[in-house]
Every structure is written in C-alpha cells, then in structure tokens.
C-alpha cells in the first residue's frame, strides 16, 4: 500500500508536468496541440545530446530553453497565422499534427529507433523513511514540484500572470485593456511545451526515450486536461495524481495491462458525473 502511494506520487508529478503544459496552452489559446507530448521526447533527446558536451545539468537547462524557443517560433510562424481564419481548433490540430510528424521523423533520422536512456544529473541511491530511491528520482520530484509551484505563483502573483488569466478569461476584453494578447499567446505556448520538455529531461534518466514515445504521453496529457476541466491548472494538477494513483493500484492489484484502460474509464466516469471536469474553468490557484 505504502509503495503504491509513493509510486503514485512519482508518476503523478510526471503526468502533471506534461498535463499542465497542455492545459495552459488550451486554456489561454484554445489551441489543441497534438505535438505537445513530442516535446517530452525532444526534451529527453536534447538533454542526452547536450550532456555529452556540457554535462547532464546544463543539458537539462538547455533542452528546456530550446523547447521554449521552439514553442515561440511555432506560435509566431504557424498558429498566429491561423487566428485569421475560422475554426482555429481544427486548423491548429492539423498544424500541430504536422509538427509532431516532423519532430518524430527528425529524431528517428538523427538518433535512430533505439530506446535511449538519458544521462541523469545524479547517480546512486538513498533511503528515505525506509524506502530506497535513486537520487535522480528525488531530484526529478523536487525540480518538478518547484517548476509547478513556480508556474502557479507566476499566474497568481505577477503582471504576466494577470495578463495570462485575463486573456484566458476573455481575449477581446484583455485586448481592450491594452494587453498584448499575441505576446501572451506566444509566452503561453512556449512555457507549455517547455514543461513537457522539462519532464522528458527530468524523467528520461529514470525511464527511456524513443522517437515515437510521445504518443503514450499525449494520451496521458489529454486525459489529465479533460479530467481536470479544460483549461483549469489546479484541476489538471489534481487529475494528474488521481490518474497516477488509479493506474498504479490497477497494476498492483489487477495486473496485466489493466492500467492502460484506467485513464479512459476514469475520463468517462468523470464526464458522466461532472461533464466539465473537476474544476471546469481556468483556475490559476
């Protein structure tokens, strides 16, 4: 039981890192980013690449930075042009699907199809409250938690956060108040994909990365976003840990591949009971 709870925490923080980014992008921009989880893979591979030259820590930082820059370019070059057309959500799905295919194909061409383990910042194990963990696991947990708290603090206590929340609530009114809405969109998209890349860099040393690895995490990100309430930051955070706990205990007590179906079943049950998800609207709390 205790081991299951601990495993749920580690899995939940990983799902939160991926899901919060997708939730931020949709909540602010109303864009469905099908390339989102590919940035998890990008983060892992960029950390792997830069680690050979600069070490894992700088590799992790640079992977997050370059993912943020890539997000800015995608928004400026692609998504903002789509805003002039009707049906932004459908068009953004087509665009980001293309980005996803380009990312997967490029990673396959450069790194091959083999599973790769990303170099960790730390090695070795340690014991905490009677349980043994790798130091990298604890590092990933602490840094992920710090990034999540930082994001929530940014949204709640900063001028940029106020602009993001105003834009997510009503972009027309936000523009009338003098907020540079396009700038907010760009920053939101960059931060969203940077979170996914950070997850890849942090958890890649514990798991593995491969070019098509984003498919699984895209499913988890959408489940977290839908369960939490489309656009709700706090709801997505809650949903990430609920999903992780459900999967962990399904694997422990049912076994097999039962955990693969838990997320879909959970989404259906949540939508039946509460169609808007746990919180159901933008909430930066």
Question: Any chance you could write out the topology, listing elements then pairs?
Answer:
Elements: H1 2-29, H2 38-54, H3 56-82, H4 88-111, E1 125-128, E2 131-134, H5 135-157, H6 159-169, H7 171-176, H8 181-203, H9 214-228, H10 233-253, H11 259-273
Antiparallel strand pairs: 1-2
Helix pairs in contact: 1-5, 1-8, 1-9, 1-10, 2-3, 2-4, 2-8, 2-9, 3-8, 5-6, 5-8, 6-8, 9-10, 9-11, 10-11
Relative helix content:
over 70%
Strand content: under 5%
Our count of domains comes out at 1
Query: Helices and strands, in N-to-C order?
Result: HHHHEEHHHHHHH
Describe, in plain words, how this protein is organized in 3D.
With 285 residues, the chain is mainly alpha-helical. It has one domain. It has 11 helices and 2 strands; from the N terminus they run ααααββααααααα. The chain has helices at residues 2-29, 38-54, 56-82, 88-111, 135-157, 159-169, 171-176, 181-203, 214-228, 233-253, 259-273; strands spanning 125-128, 131-134. A two-stranded antiparallel sheet has the order 1-2.
Tag the structure with descriptive keywords.
mainly alpha; two-stranded antiparallel ribbon; 2 strands; 74% helix
Q: What does this entry show, briefly?
A:
The protein is mainly alpha-helical. The protein has one domain (11-210). Helices cover 74% and strands 3% of the residues.
């Amino acid at each position: 039981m205790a081991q299951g709870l601990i495993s749920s925490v580690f899995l939940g923080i990983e799902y939160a890192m991926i899901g919060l980014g997708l939730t931020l992008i949709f909540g602010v921009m109303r864009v469905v980013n099908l390339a989102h989880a590919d940035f998890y893979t990008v983060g892992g591979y960029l950390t792997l690449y830069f680690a050979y030259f600069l070490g894992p820590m700088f590799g992790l930082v640079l992977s997050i930075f370059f993912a943020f820059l890539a997000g800015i370019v995608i928004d400026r070059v692609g998504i903002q042009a789509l805003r002039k057309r009707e049906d932004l959500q459908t068009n953004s799905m087509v665009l980001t699907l293309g980005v996803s295919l380009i990312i997967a194909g490029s990673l396959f061409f450069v790194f091959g199809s083999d599973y790769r383990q990303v170099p960790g910042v730390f090695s070795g194990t340690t014991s905490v409250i009677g349980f043994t963990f790798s130091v990298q696991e604890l590092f990933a947990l602490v840094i992920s938690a710090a990034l999540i708290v930082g994001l929530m603090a940014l949204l709640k206590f900063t001028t940029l956060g106020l602009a993001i929340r105003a834009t997510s609530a009503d972009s027309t009114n936000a523009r009338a108040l003098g907020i540079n809405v396009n700038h907010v969109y760009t920053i939101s998209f960059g931060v969203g994909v940077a979170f996914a890349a950070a997850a890849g860099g942090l958890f890649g040393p514990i798991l593995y990365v491969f070019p098509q690895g984003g498919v699984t995490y895209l499913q988890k990100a959408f489940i977290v976003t839908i369960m939490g309430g489309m656009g709700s930051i706090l709801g997505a955070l809650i949903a990430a840990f609920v999903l992780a706990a459900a999967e962990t205990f399904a694997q422990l007590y049912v076994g097999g591949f039962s955990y693969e179906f838990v997320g879909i079943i959970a989404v259906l049950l949540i939508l039946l009971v509460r169609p808007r998800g746990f919180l159901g609207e933008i909430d930066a709390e």
